[in-house]
Design goal:
The complex is a heterodimer of chains A (395) and B (376). Chain A has 395 residues and is an alpha+beta fold. Helices cover 46% and strands 15% of the residues of chain A. Chain A has 3 domains: 7-89, Acyl-CoA dehydrogenase/oxidase, N-terminal domain (Butyryl-Coa Dehydrogenase, subunit A, domain 1, Orthogonal Bundle); 124-232, Butyryl-CoA Dehydrogenase, subunit A, domain 2, CATH 2.40.110; 249-391, Butyryl-CoA Dehydrogenase, subunit A, domain 3 (Up-down Bundle), CATH 1.20.140.10. Chain A has helices at 7-23, 26-34, 40-53, 71-83, 91-104, 107-119, 233-247, 251-267, 279-307, 317-338, 364-370, 381-392, and strands at 124-127, 143-147, 150-157, 168-174, 185-191, 197-203, 209-222, 226-227, 269-270, 273-274. A 4-stranded mixed sheet of chain A has the order 1-4-5-8. In chain A, a hairpin with a 2-residue loop joins β9 (269-270) and β10. In chain A, α5 (91-104) packs across α7 (233-247), α8 runs parallel beside α10 (317-338) and α10 packs antiparallel against α12 (381-392). The model of chain A has no long low-confidence stretch (mean pLDDT 93). By secondary structure, chain B is an alpha+beta fold. Chain B has 3 domains: 7-119, Acyl-CoA dehydrogenase/oxidase, N-terminal domain (Butyryl-Coa Dehydrogenase, subunit A, domain 1, Orthogonal Bundle); 122-228, Butyryl-CoA Dehydrogenase, subunit A, domain 2 (Beta Barrel), CATH 2.40.110; 231-375, Up-down Bundle (Butyryl-CoA Dehydrogenase, subunit A, domain 3), CATH 1.20.140. Chain B contains 11 helices and 10 strands. In chain B, the strands form 3 sheets. In chain B, strands 1-4-5-8 form a 4-stranded mixed sheet, with helices on one face. Chains A and B meet through β9, α10 and α11 of A and β3, β6, β9, α9 and α10 of B. Flavin-adenine dinucleotide sits between chains A (125-129, 134-135, 159-161, 204, 210-211, 373, 376-377, 380, 382-383, 386) and B (266, 268-269, 273, 276, 278-279, 335-336, 338-339, 342).
Chain lengths: 395, 376
Amino acid sequence: MDLSFSPEEEAFRQEVRSFIRDNLPDKLKGKVRRGDLETKDDYLTWHKILYRQGWVAPAWPKQYGGPGWTVTQRYIFNEECAEAETPMILPFGVAMCGPVIYTFGSEAQKQKYLPRILSGEDWWCQGYSEPGAGSDLASLKTRAVRDGDHYIVNGQKTWTTLAQFADWIFCLVRTDTSVKQQEGITFLLIDMKTPGITVKPIIVLDGAHEVNEVFFDNVKVPVENRIGEENKGWTYAKFLLVHERSGIAGVARSKKAIERLKQIAEAEMIDGKPLIETDEFTRKIAETEIDLSALEFTELRTLAKESRGQMAGPESSILKIKGTEIQQRITELTLEAIGYYAYPDARSFGDNEYPVGPDYAVGQAGHYFNMRKASIYGGSNEIQRGIIAKAVLGL
Amino acid sequence: MDFSYTEEQTLLRNSVARFLADHYDFETFKRVSRAEPGWRPDIWKQFAELGLLGASLPEDFGGLGGGPIETMIVMEEFGKALAVEPYVATVVIGGGLLRRSGSDAQRQEWLPKIAGGETVMAFAFAEPQGRYDLADLTTTAKKSGAGHVLNGHKAVVLGGPWADTLIVTARVGGGQRDANGVSVFLVDKKSDGISARHYPTVDGQHASEITFENVEVPASNLIGAEGEGLPLIEQAVDEAIAAHCAEAVGCMRVLQDATVEYSKTRKQFGVPIGKFQVLQHRMVDMFINTEQSVSIALMATLKLGESETERKKAASAAKVHIGRAGRFVGQQAVQIHGGMGMTDELNVGHYFKRLTMLDTLYGNVDHHLKRYAALA
Ligand SMILES: Cc1cc2nc3c(=O)[nH]c(=O)nc-3n(C[C@H](O)[C@H](O)[C@H](O)COP(=O)(O)OP(=O)(O)OC[C@H]3O[C@@H](n4cnc5c(N)ncnc54)[C@H](O)[C@@H]3O)c2cc1C
């Protein structure tokens, strides 16, 4: 066992660092910090820059367009992106649908979809949840009925993140109602431009249009858009959920957020001295940092296992639970740190308007409210604890 | 010992509750708080007619002769309705300061106006550098003839856009954080030299950054003795804390009820989610937190008239407890509602946001824990 990086790995870090320094547009940096990436362009600009460099999908096998990095290189890449506060690459295409397609898709599907996921030409969204099927995903009701070489899809998805920008949606649909719930589900790729699809916005707590309802009214989907076999969709869906879970830990981003928090606590004054010099606050930051260190090494242990070719098991739920708890804790402490300047609603300020209060306070309350989602989505933290209880502890 | 409400107090609660149910539902709150002017001047007049604005003011000045209990009752109902009207700034801070420390002339002039709904006040006390320290002031008041001239910047003045009169703290002497040398003034918002930037807040209210540039204030607008304003303000703020604790209790009660109700109807895995023991215990903890908050808000209210130390300890204790309880209840209400809890459409998230900001107002958990420890 060894904690140090090899000279090659250090060289790789330098390469990534200078690439980001030379290529990340200034205008995006501030937006990431304030959490207000908003337009399709905001997200896609950085995606395309990484794509041109061949770095947009670090985890993909080389044959499908991945960079062929080791687990350590991916870890370093993540750290550098977090350090430089680059926009995140949205998971729906690159981290979710892509891996499902190259693992379970047909040759034709791989050729059709994978290059367009990499290039950013196709924006994907995730159509799993329904009004009646959240935690109990397998109870989903959106119906797909076979009609010659098409499926006719009727029903509703909800909480669909950024579907307003999407070209494609990957959906779980019910194709057999006569069997056990999990055995009647099929995984379909649906073109968002197909007639019969309607997208309606859902505004979340910080005022952002982040999620949507997606309605399907007699939507015709070619059978060739099915992943794998009919009624085997649950298997593919579960594979994807595990992928979603490990990405969610966000260790590197949380490290950066703690660094930012410390800067805020240095600038904020209390009784005539910086907030960071008070015991109470410094302890709270230290506790969070310690939690994060433990999580980092839990993640490294998982990665080590992966690099030996083993799949991450149900213990990856730890990463989701602790990762999101820490993310939420940091936003909580940031809110505490900024005092009264948490009050102004950043959304009311125009692009060219000077914000009220210090720059670092802008949007922080909204960010805190918004991050309550993290313990709800991706399988709620209650569900994750249930998974560990059942699958790991055998309870 | 007697914890029962008088007949008048019960009547007051019923009439506020009924009035707000009829005139201040959640959709109204959302619509009003998002459009200009962001509050309801019309309803302010109706509050006056109902006797709410004078409930805690002396009868001699157009009030109903009540006190902190009446304020608590009104504010708990305001909390349930997410009301944004500047009741605390006008009635509790303004009314309280004037009732206790105003000159006869000031009381004659202002208290009937407050009770009658003819004035709206905002409390301009916080400054960018001062955090929660009421004495940390860089705004200055310099003697000029019989009156004063104000200079400085006040931060996040809640209700600032709606007020006609500002209650302003300023330094007349001493160092930046000294207890001595603080004065408190009534300032006409239309005075020359006042400029303001108004903005909405994250919890559906409105606030202002207010700058004073050589603003002349007549001698008749100084409240209490020159340079001895801090104890007056501390008392007024403790009363405001008790009032906002009652507001927080109102918010918690709504969240508690809404969450239990939701867990009985929302089904996953074929059963209402309220059947899952982990959520049951969570809701029991929400309930315990809410009940304990009711108790400590009451304690803070009843101790407002005791010695300075007792009063401060009780206010800080309530602020600490309710800061924590409010965070727990708010977060868990959202969590148990799942995706629905994250929406702007449902009321739950709005109560969560109000509770969050109530922790900040007049000092958060850390601030009051420290103040309590120093007094204990
Ligand atoms: C911001 C946001 C973005 C999202 N993006 C997407 C997306 O892009 N695509 C998509 O398909 N979905 C998305 N989701 C949906 C998300 O996956 C669901 O919200 C989540 O699965 C919870 O489902 P629900 O909201 O229906 O809550 P419910 O399942 O109704 O849960 C309500 C509460 O009950 C608890 N609970 C449920 N079952 C149990 C149990 N057995 N034991 C203990 N507690 C239980 C839950 O933990 C939760 O606290 C998103 C959600 C949010 C908030």
